[in-house]
């Protein structure tokens, strides 16, 4: 990427039009030239935290090929800036762009712990694993300030309710005390996303995430403390990180992970245009190759929304990727199994303490 024109610390390099809006905002060249001559900033590139007040916090996941039934998100938008993130499209429902807005307009749900507790106390609620970060990372930078994730973990512990976490941030270790307490009753599972062993690749794919070294160290520390970890090799992007499947699996296993999972990248909705703009600026020498190989995994398109094939792809390249992951499991995780979470305790703790009578 041209460092003179790149927007520092961001994945997306533009705001694509919101498909729900008739009008769009454009940064014109004459305005940029005016700013240059006047010595002014055309874009301050600041992150804004915006409070929102949803009525519920736990969502039922209807998709049959996502390994979760319920999810919750303390934040909407994600400062990590992963260029491929499928969740970017959801920002359009809030009136923002899936591009830079997704990384710089973060909606904060401060009432999430209270809403979660209300749900878990309902007599009609039956324990089922709730996944934190089904959409955006619950340990993104905003969590340092607001600590909503920590408060929610405290609620899960209070009511002995199973919870799973998806993250790519070492900040999770801040809450090691709560995670260990949950692990004593088999109430916690962590999914650490690691997409590459190359820091160069990480920096351009996921600019504000924890380093690969820190993520692997986090897997090791969690595992040593009895907290089961699954490593997400997701997404696999042909010609960018597809050659790293076996080394990634080996590193994950050596650091204590119990299993691995993967998806093949799909550029749904507005993400196709965001990704294409990014890759022509970042990897112009292989942009066409990467895009064509992604298309070969999805029937000639950058996206495939069909259940059953959208996550695994089809065609020769997808078949090769899926076979490599299968081989990695046999080679490095042959005798390892991610334990199922405990669903049996919650009913006894509906009132926040063990029922005595």
Automatic annotation (TrEMBL):
Domain of life: Bacteria
Alphabetized SMART domains for the sequence: Elp3
Domain Radical SAM core per the UniProt entry, residue ranges: 64-301
Xref: Pfam families: Radical_SAM (PF04055)
Keywords: Iron, Iron-sulfur, Metal-binding
NCBIfam families: rSAM_PA0069 (NF033668)
Protein name (record): PA0069 family radical SAM protein
Species the sequence originates in: Flavivirga aquimarina
């Amino acid at each position: 990427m041209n460092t003179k024109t790149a927007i520092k610390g961001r994945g997306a390099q533009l705001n694509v039009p919101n498909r729900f809006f008739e009008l769009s905002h454009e940064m014109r060249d004459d305005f940029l030239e005016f700013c240059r001559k006047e010595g002014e900033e055309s874009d301050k590139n600041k992150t804004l935290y915006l409070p929102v007040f949803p009525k519920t916090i736990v969502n039922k996941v209807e998709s049959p090929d996502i390994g979760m039934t319920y999810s919750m998100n303390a934040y909407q938008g994600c400062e990590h800036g992963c260029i491929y993130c499928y969740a970017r499209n959801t920002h359009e429902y809030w009136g923002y762009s899936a591009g830079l807005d997704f990384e710089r307009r973060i909606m904060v749900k401060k009432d999430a712990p209270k809403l979660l507790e209300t749900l878990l106390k309902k007599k009609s609620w039956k324990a089922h694993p709730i996944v934190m970060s089904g959409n955006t990372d619950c340990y993104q930078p905003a969590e340092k300030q607001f600590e909503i994730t920590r408060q929610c973990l405290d609620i899960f512990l209070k009511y002995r309710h199973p919870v799973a976490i998806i993250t790519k941030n070492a900040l999770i270790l801040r809450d090691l005390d709560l995670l260990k307490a949950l692990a004593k009753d088999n109430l916690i599972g962590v999914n650490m996303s690691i997409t590459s062993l190359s820091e160069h690749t990480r920096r351009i794919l996921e600019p504000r995430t924890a380093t690969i070294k820190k993520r692997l160290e986090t897997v090791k520390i969690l595992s040593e403390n009895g907290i089961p970890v699954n490593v997400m090799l997701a997404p696999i992007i042909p010609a960018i990180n597809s050659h790293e499947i076996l080394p990634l699996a080996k590193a994950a296993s050596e650091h204590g992970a119990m299993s691995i999972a993967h998806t093949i990248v799909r550029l749904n909705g507005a993400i196709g245009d965001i990704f294409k703009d990014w890759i022509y600026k970042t990897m112009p020498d292989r942009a066409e190759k990467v895009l064509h190989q992604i298309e070969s995994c999805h029937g000639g398109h950058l996206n495939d929304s069909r259940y059953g094939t959208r996550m695994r792809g089809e065609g020769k390249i997808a078949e090769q990727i899926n076979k490599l992951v299968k081989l990695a499991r046999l080679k490095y995780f042959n005798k390892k199994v991610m334990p199922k979470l405990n669903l049996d305790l919650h009913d006894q703790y509906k009132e926040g303490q063990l029922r005595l009578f």
